[in-house]
Structures are given as C-alpha cells and as structure tokens.
Specification:
By secondary structure, this protein is α+β, with helices and mostly antiparallel strands. It has one domain: Arc Repressor Mutant, subunit A, CATH 1.10.10. The strands form 2 sheets. The chain has a 3-stranded mixed beta sheet. Strands 1-2 form a two-stranded antiparallel ribbon.
Length: about 160
C-alpha cells in the first residue's frame, strides 16, 4: 500500500487530491451501507482541504460559516461518524482530526506531525509492532503511532 507522505509533504494537485479522496470516501460509505449526509460530506471536505489536523471547534466554525449550524454536537457527530467509518482519524497528541488517506481499507496508520507548520502526513505503522505483540501473546485491536518532527518544506 502506498504511503501518503510524498503527496502530503510534497507538491501535488490539491484539488485532485480532494476530489479523489471524496470519491473514495463516498465509495467506502456505499460499500458499507453508510449514509454520507451533507454535513458529514462537508466535514470530510473541510478535513481534506487542509493537510493539518483540525480541532472539532475549527471544523464547527467552518460548518457554521457554511450554514450547518453552530452547536458543537453538529461537528462532533460528523467527526465521530467519519472516524467510525474509517474516513478520518483522531490525532491523540493534538486532540484533532485528519482525513484518512486510505479510506475503505483496513490499515494501521502512523502520523508524522510537523512541529513548525502543523502539516500531518499519514503513513503505515508497519509490522514491527505486530511482531512484538504476537511474540508477547498480545492481540492488538487498535494502533496509534504519532511522530513529531520537521517536514521537508520547513527544513528547507
């Protein structure tokens, strides 16, 4: 499975990135029998428009300006749906959310968070943790790997 850091940290056609991610998200919802309502779809778009993690209140402010309401449950319900549907991830360290770069696929994400610009790239956690868990007789149900550092643009 391809990882996202090249497209997130590098130059890319962001409009194409958003369109293809929305198409993949819609297909994943259809395949799972889930309903991507207008507020859920707009919330996913908001997350896709930025390659940085957004807090629930940042999302809520955008939803409110788009006419979806200003009450916190509007954002929290949409974000919870997106996370549960595998279309977004919660970045624990930042208490914020990012759109998933592999919607509809079962994967163990790893996040690279730039300390300078806030950009978040999603990659794969890899097999090392699973190997260690298997050796210990531990069954992993959920993995969250978050690394902080400096992205290529901020290093230059």
């Amino acid at each position: 499975m391809a990882s996202a850091p090249e497209s997130t940290f590098g130059r890319h056609d962001h409009a194409h990135c958003i369109r293809s991610a929305l198409t993949a998200g819609e297909a994943a919802c259809a395949a799972a029998g889930l309903r991507l309502t207008p507020v859920r779809r707009r919330t996913l778009e908001i997350l896709l428009e930025a390659h940085e993690a957004l807090g629930a209140y940042d999302v809520l402010a955008r939803l409110d300006s788009d006419g979806f309401g200003s009450k916190p449950p509007v954002a929290y319900r949409a974000l919870t749906f997106l996370v549960d549907a595998g279309l977004a991830h919660r970045i624990e360290r930042l208490n914020a959310f990012v759109a998933c770069t592999h919607p509809g696929s079962d994967h163990d994400p790893a996040f690279m968070i730039c300390n300078r610009c806030g950009t978040v790239a999603e990659g794969e956690a890899g097999a090392a943790m699973q190997t260690s868990a298997t050796a210990a007789g531990f069954q992993i149900e959920r993995t969250v790997l978050e690394a902080e550092g400096i992205c290529p643009a901020c290093r230059d």
